[in-house]
Write a sequence for this structure.
């Protein structure tokens, strides 16, 4: 079990963090999106980040989570499309090196992330996110739809897939944590 926790401890911590966020004062009733980059595999050379991102829709107020082996990988946030396309890691805005990082999408527009290892970046381990405005709250069944067809994928990569955005509800997360606790896996040493 200790080996499992060493390999998957970050995922357990992420699950707990996602559960606790709705309990934080000031966010009650808000539906924020949480996107674990790469899905189950996380940020890894074996992941197909482009395929994962093709079905994601990112909005202001959402969070993207990077999970990766800090011993093997890091993530650079880049300042321009040119740096992103060319895997130019010489002047990053920020480096992420902890193995588990949350990045809040606080404003509209593009964000660029790439592997801190040039060879991994050139092999496609990178993510371009375009944050849309937050959804307006309205009453009735049409509340989830915006005029003008605003329901488009906003993470770009070379491949497309039918994956759907990660929808997180407090009840589902509580159930996951309860399951982990019952299996003895939610205790991180």
């Amino acid at each position: 079990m200790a080996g499992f926790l060493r390999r998957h401890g970050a995922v357990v911590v992420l699950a707990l963090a996602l559960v606790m966020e709705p309990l934080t004062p000031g966010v009650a009733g808000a539906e924020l999106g949480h996107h674990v980059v790469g899905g189950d595999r996380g940020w890894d050379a074996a992941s197909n980040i482009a395929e994962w991102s093709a079905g994601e829709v990112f909005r202001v107020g959402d969070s993207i989570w990077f999970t990766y082996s800090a011993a093997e990988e890091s993530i650079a946030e880049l300042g321009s499309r040119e740096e992103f396309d060319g895997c130019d890691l010489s002047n990053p805005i920020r480096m992420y090196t902890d193995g588990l990082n949350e990045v809040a999408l606080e404003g509209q527009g593009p964000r660029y992330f790439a592997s801190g290892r040039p060879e991994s970046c050139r092999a496609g381990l990178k993510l371009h996110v375009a944050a849309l405005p937050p959804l307006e709250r309205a009453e009735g069944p049409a509340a989830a739809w915006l005029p003008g067809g605003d329901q488009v994928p906003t993470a770009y990569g070379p491949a497309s897939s039918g994956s759907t955005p990660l929808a997180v509800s407090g009840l589902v997360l509580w159930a996951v944590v309860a399951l982990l606790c019952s299996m003895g896996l939610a205790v991180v040493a």
Observations:
- The chain is about 25% helix and 20% strand.
- The first helix runs from residue 2 to 20.
- The radius of gyration is 17 Å.
